[in-house]
Amino acid sequence: MQISFTLNGRPTTVDVAPATLVAELLREQLNLTGTHIGCDTSQCGACVVHLDGLPVKSCTLLAPALDGATLLTIEGLQGAPGSNLMHPMQEAFREHHGLQCGFCTPGMLMTAVALAAEKPDLTEADVRHGLEGNICRCTGYQNIVVSVMAGAAAMNAAKGE
């Protein structure tokens, strides 16, 4: 079947089998490999993307659900339009050492951006609760929490400009 959607700000039309998962479509058909597949059971969060502005786990979402929708992947996450800058959350993860091996990082970033957009004045408890669906096996989470809080503050500051 043919589906049309907006992918990282660009109109996209693809042919997919009805049983194709969004993660498979992104990685295997569209060559967008930033969305990682860690568990195939919706437990780890490495595959989080934004569907119509909401974070979803792409390893359990069927591609036909994208028809007419807007999808944002880690490849589409960016700083100010027209700039070559990283998104404030990406910059915060870099600055505060919120990653180690990097496997969980795309999903963490996508979840964190949605979390910060939903609740700009995040507390540590908010961040820890909001990241419950994302697993990191390397960092011990403390630097991720610090990074998300710094990224949320930077996103707020960017809105005020």
UniProtKB/TrEMBL annotation:
Keyword check for Lipid metabolism: no
InterPro entries listed in its UniProt record: 2Fe-2S-bd, 2Fe-2S-bd_dom_sf, 2Fe-2S_ferredoxin-like_sf, 2Fe-2S_ferredoxin-type, Beta-grasp_dom_sf, Diverse_Oxidoreductases
TM stretches of this protein: none
GO molecular function, one term: metal ion binding
Signal peptide interval: none
Pfam families xrefs: Fer2, Fer2_2
SUPFAM superfamilies: 2Fe-2S ferredoxin-like, CO dehydrogenase ISP C-domain like
Limits of the 2Fe-2S ferredoxin-type domain: 1-77
Identification of the protein by name: (2Fe-2S)-binding protein
Species this chain originates from: Bradyrhizobium frederickii
